[in-house]
């Protein structure tokens, strides 16, 4: 049995050598992200995922914030130079997507459905993971590379202030994206018998 979906999913890799040589316009990419997130599932159709898509200088601001924040934490100069070089690869891309969870919706659901209260936070994590996977794959289908980064919660306050985001939106990840200047290497997989079980 063949699957076009899995052919496209296999194109989704962590791409760290990013560039700005993207044929799509910012508006086209923004609309792709919007449509993909809207079509991603969430428990109780809660739609807790928020996505902020930044281009140009606004995208660079994200990585300036990351760099400035880590400079205060990474005290060893040689170690910080490595960190700075890594951040530069994200800044070199065409744009950045911030993924956030609307915690107000999560807390309201906890109150409305107390029997399920302990589940709404992990369910929101499942929702944002599904949305990230879907957007990442949709970008890959368009020939756009990306990776998923997690500098939250270190940068949360600065990001909210820089982009005037609601305080109820909790930052969960950052996705730099752009042209693929160097493809990903070979991917290693665990043995199938450690991962899958067929029961008939």
TrEMBL record:
Residues 10-178 form the Nitroreductase domain. It is found in: Cytoplasm. One of its GO terms (biological process) is cellular response to oxidative stress. One of its GO terms (molecular function) is oxidoreductase activity. GO terms for cellular component: cytoplasm. It comes from the Bacteria. InterPro entries: Frm2/Hbn1, Nitroreductase, Nitroreductase-like. Pfam families: Nitroreductase. Keywords: Cytoplasm, Oxidoreductase. PANTHER family: FATTY ACID REPRESSION MUTANT PROTEIN 2-RELATED (PTHR43035:SF1). This is Nitroreductase family protein.
């Amino acid at each position: 049995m063949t699957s076009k979906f899995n052919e496209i999913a296999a194109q989704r890799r962590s791409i760290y050598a990013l560039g700005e040589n993207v044929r799509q316009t910012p508006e086209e990419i923004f609309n792709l992200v919007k449509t993909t997130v809207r079509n991603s599932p969430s428990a109780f159709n809660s739609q807790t995922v928020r996505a902020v898509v930044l281009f140009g200088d606004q995208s660079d601001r994200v990585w300036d914030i990351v760099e400035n924040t880590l400079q205060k934490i990474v005290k060893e100069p040689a170690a910080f130079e490595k960190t700075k070089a890594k951040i530069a690869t994200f800044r070199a891309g065409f744009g950045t997507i911030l993924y956030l969870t609307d915690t107000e919706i999560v807390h309201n659901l906890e109150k409305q459905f107390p029997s399920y209260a302990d589940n709404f936070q992990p369910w929101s994590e499942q929702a944002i993971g599904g949305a990230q996977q879907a957007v990442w794959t949709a970008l890959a289908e368009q020939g756009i590379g990306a990776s998923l980064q997690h500098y939250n919660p270190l940068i949360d306050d600065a990001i909210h202030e820089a982009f005037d985001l609601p305080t109820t939106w909790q930052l969960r990840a950052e996705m730099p994206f752009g042209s693929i200047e160097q493809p990903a290497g070979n991917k290693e997989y665990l043995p199938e018998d450690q991962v899958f079980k067929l029961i008939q």
